[in-house]
Amino acid sequence: MKGGLSRPALAGALKRTTNTLCSAPSHLKQGILASQKRFHGGFKGTHSPHGKWGGITVKEESAMQSAARLAALKATGEGTPVYEDFVKDRLARRRQFLSDNKTLVNESADLEVLKDGEVTCIDGNQATAHIAYALSDISFIYPITPSSPMGEMVDEWASHGLKNVWGQTVSVTEMQSEAGAAGALHGALKAGAFASTYTASQGLLLMIPNMYKIAGELLPCVMHVSARCLCAHALNIFGDHSDVMAVRGTGWAMLASESTQMAMDQALVSHLATMEARLPILHFFDGFRTSHEVNKVKLISYADIAKVVNQAWVKAHHDSALSPTNPHIQGTNQGPDVFFQGAEAANKYHARMPEILERCSEVVAGITGRKYAPYAYEGHPEAEHVVVVMGSGAVTVSEVVHRMMGEGKKVGVLKVRQFRPWGPEKFAAALPASVKRIAVLDRLKENGAMGEPLFVDVCATLNQTGNSDIMVIGGRFGLGGKDFTPGQVLAVYDNLASPSPKPVFTVGITDDVTNLSLPVTSEPDVLPEGTVQCLLYGLGSDGTVGANKTAIKLIAKNTDMDAQGYFEYDAKKSGGLTVSHLRFGPKKINAPYLVKNADYIAIHKESYIWRLDMCQFLKPNGKVVINATFGPDEAEAKIPPLMKKQIADKNGKLYLINGPKVGMETGMGKRINMVLQSVFFKLSGVLPFEEAIGLLKKDIVKMYSKKGDKVVEQNHLAVDKSIENLVEVPVPAEWKNITNPPKPWVSLAENLHHAKPAKASARAYSTSALGARPP
Question: What is the mean pLDDT of residues 510-518?
Fold first, then answer.
C-alpha cells in the first residue's frame, strides 16, 4: 500500500475500527472483517514467506509455531552431540579466561592462553592489541585490512570477560563505519573514559574531522594504525605510509614501530604518555609487514602494566569529563577575536610531549629492559654517508649497514620513531659529526610536493641547526607493500657514494618512464649464520598457514632458536594462493623481507607446479617436496621442464608425498596439514626429527583432545604414515641439459596481487617435447 501505514500499524487500525463499530449495521461489520481477512490471508505465506508481518512474529505466535517449524525441518529441537561439545568447549574456555585473565593466541583450532612474561610467537597486531586492551575502558571498532585483527581480538577477549588493569571488562562496540567509530571515540573521551580504536588507509581518512577535535580539545587517546596504502590510481590493501602521513597535520603525536616486539613496547609508551600529556597519540607500524609478521616476543604482563600507571593521571581525565555535576565549558564556537590565541595556547602541551615520551620510554624500559630512542643512530661513529628511514625498512637498512661496516665502509642509519612532534635538536644530535651526505627514504609518494614529508622535515632540521652544508637527497621505496630488500639498500648507498647522486630517486622498481629508479645489481645474504629459510606454497584455507604458525610456535617456545613467519595471500584469500615465508636460526633474525634463498620449498598443491615458478628461489643443495598423486616413476613426465632444470642446477633434492592417500588411510580425509607438517620437520632440519615429532604429537593432544581420543589417534597415525609415504626422487644429471624451458602460465606476483589470475599464454608448453604439458 504505497504511501500508507505499515502492515502492523494497518492491522491495528483495522482492529480498532472493528471494536469501535460494534454497534454498526451488520453489512458494515462484514465489510470490515473481510478487509481484515484479506489483509492477513493475502500476506501470510504469499507475499512474504516469513509470516504475516514479513518476518516480525509476536511472542505468542512464535511459541505456537516453533513445534510445527521444527517438525517441518525434521528437527527435534535438541542439540546434536557436535554442537553440545562445541558449547562445552566454549564454556570451558570462558572459565579459563575468568580464572587466568590473560590474552590469548588465536591460531586456527588452537586457542591458547598466554602467560604473563612468557616468550611466545605472535604478530604485530596481537602485540599491540594486548596492550590496548589493558589500558582501555571502551573501544570502538570497524574492520579494515590490515588492522581488523586488532579490533577482532579485543572484541573476542571482551566477550570472554577478560579484565583490563582496572579490573573491568572493556566495552567494545562495532560501528557502521570508521567515521562512526571516530565520533563515538570522541564522545567517550569527553565523558572521561579512556578509549581506543584501530584502523588503516581510507578508514583513517574518515576519522580526520574528529581527530582535529580530539587533539584541539587536549583529550588523551591512542589510535593504533596498521599503516596501509591509500587507494589512488588503483586499490591496494598492502602497507606503506601514505595514510598516516595524510593525518600528520591533525595535531596528534605520531610514534612509529619497526618490529613486533617494538609494537608492543611502543604501544605501552603511547598509552602512558597520552595520560600524562593529555594529547592524543597515533601509534603506527607497517601494514602486513609488521602487523602480520609472526615473531618471537616477550609479553608484558598486565601486573607490570598496572604498576606503571599513574592513577593521578587517570583521576585527572575522569575529573575533566563533561557532567551536570561538574559543569564547565569545552569545544566552544570562537570568532576571529580569540580563536588564534586559543590555538597558540596549546603550544606548551605539544612542547612538553617529547620529554614525556622520553620519560615514559624509560618507565617501560624499567620493566622490559628495552628502550627505544626517538631518533636512533646505528653505524660507524665517523660515518660519512647516512640513510634516514622510518618503519620496518629501518631494520633492513640496519642489517646492511653492519655488513658494510665489516667491509670497512663508513656508513650509518638514523631510525626515526618519533615523527610528531618532530624534535630537530634531538635529530641533529643523533647524527655523527662526520656525516657529509644523507639519503632520506619515504614510504609514500606526495605528488606535486618539493619532497616527501620525512625528506622535507630533515632538510628543514639541517637548515635550522646549522648543518646546511650536508647534501640531502630523497627517495621513495616500498609503495603498496613492495618488498624492500638488502639489495635495494645497497643501491641507495651506491647512489649516495657516486660523484653525482640522483637527487630524487625510487628503488625497488624499474622506472623506464621518468628514469628515477636505482639499479639493484646484487642481493647480499645478511642473515645470521645458521639461519634456515623455508617457502611453503598452499591453497587458502587448506590449513597450510595455520600449520606453519603452529610450527613456528613449537620451535620458538620449546627451543632457544629464534623464529619468524610472514604469510602472503592473493586477493581471493580463501581458495587462493598462499606463500609462507619462514625463518629459524640460533641468533636473532631481523629480516622484514621475503625469502629469496630457500633451504626448503614445499608445494602443497599439485597443479601449482605447472602454473607458477616456485623453485626460482631454491638455495644450492636445497630440498623440494611436492604433495602429488603421482609416483617417482611418473616424475619425468609430470614435472615441468623449468622445475627439473632449476632443481638439477642447484644440486637440489626432490621428494614426493601423496597427502590425499595418507589422509584416506588414516581417516583424516582432506585434512592433511599434519601430514605435510611432519614432512616439514623431517626434511627442513630445523630440529632433530625425533624431538620435533615428539613436540608435534604433544601439541596434537593439546589441540584435539577436546574432540575425542579418536581424532587424536587419527592425527598421530597421520604423522607416522606421512614419513612412511615420503619418497625421494633421484635427480638425473640430464635435467641440467634442458634448454629453453617454457615459463609457467603466470608469475607469482600476478597470482598474489591481482584479483583475477592472468590467462595462460596461448603458446605456453607448445614449442618442444620437453614442454608438452601432461594430460
Answer: 96
**What's the CA gap between 765 and 743, in Å, rounded?**
8
User: What mean pLDDT is predicted for residues 179-197?
Assistant: 96
Q: Could you report the per-residue pLDDT of 236-264, keeping only the tens digit for each?
A: 999 999 999 999 999 999 999 999 999 99
Give the span between the Cα atoms of 259 and 285, in whole angstroms: 8
Instruction: Identify which of 474, 498, 515, 482 has the alpha carbon closest to the alpha carbon of residue 387.
Output: 474
Least confident span in 6-15, 219-228, 480-489, 652-661:
6-15
Rounded CA separation 259/732 (Å): 44
Q: How confident is the model at residue 3 (pLDDT cuts 50, 70, 90)?
A: very low
Rg (CA), the chain: 31
* 655 backbone dihedrals φ, ψ, rounded to 5°: -130, 150
Could you tell me which residues come within 8 angstroms of residue 377 by beta carbon, excluding any fewer than 6 positions away? 386, 412, 413, 414, 415, 430, 431, 432
What pLDDT shows up at residue 746? 57
pTM above 0.90, yes or no: no
- pLDDT tens track for 538-591: 987 777 888 888 889 888 888 889 999 999 987 665 668 899 999 999 999 999
Q: Measured at the alpha carbon of residue 763, what is the angle toward residues 762 and 769, in degrees to the nearest 5?
A: 135
| 293 CB-contact burial (10 Å; exposed 0-12 / middle 13-18 / buried 19+) | buried
- Mean pLDDT score across all residues of the chain: 85
- Nearest Cα to 134, choosing from 259, 260, 299? 299
Q: What is the mean pLDDT of the segment spanning 282-289?
A: 97
Q: Find the farthest-apart pair of alpha carbons in the chain and give their distance in angstroms, rounded.
A: 111
CA 189, 195, 200, 206 dihedral sign is negative
CB 146 within 8 A of CB 286: no
Give the Cα separation of 284 and 768 in Å (integer). Answer: 52
Q: Which residues pair with 420 in a beta bridge?
A: 254
Q: Which of 422, 419, 431 lies closest to 376 in space, CA to CA?
A: 431
Whole-number Å distance between alpha carbons of 175 and 181? 6
Cis peptide before 324 (omega within 30 of 0): no
Q: What percent of the chain has pLDDT over 90?
A: 67
Residues whose CB is less than 8 angstroms from the CB of residue 487 and which lie 6 or more positions away in sequence, other chains included: 520, 521, 522, 523, 524
- Strand 375-379 versus strand 411-416 pairing type: antiparallel
Alpha carbons 307 and 431: distance in angstroms, whole number? 35
Q: How far is CA 444 from CA 291, 340, 397, in A?
A: 18, 32, 17
Q: How confident is the model at residue 44 (pLDDT cuts 50, 70, 90)?
A: very low
Nearest-angstrom CA–CA distance, 383 and 385: 6
Using CA atoms, how far apart are residues 141 and 723, in angstroms rounded to an integer?
46
β 562-569/577-585 pair status? antiparallel
Between the two ends of the chain, the Cα-to-Cα distance in Å is 62
CA 156/CA 168 separation, integer angstroms: 15
Is residue 297 within a helix (H) or strand (E), and if so which, with residue range? strand 294-298
Contact 162, 169 (CB under 8 A): yes
* Burial environment of residue 165 by CB neighbours within 10 A (0 to 12, 13 to 18, 19 or more): middle
Q: How many CB atoms lie within 10 A of CB 384?
A: 16
Q: 411-415, 485-489, 687-691 — which is least confidently predicted?
A: 687-691
Q: Calculate helix-pair angle for 544-558, 673-684, nearest 10 degrees.
A: 50
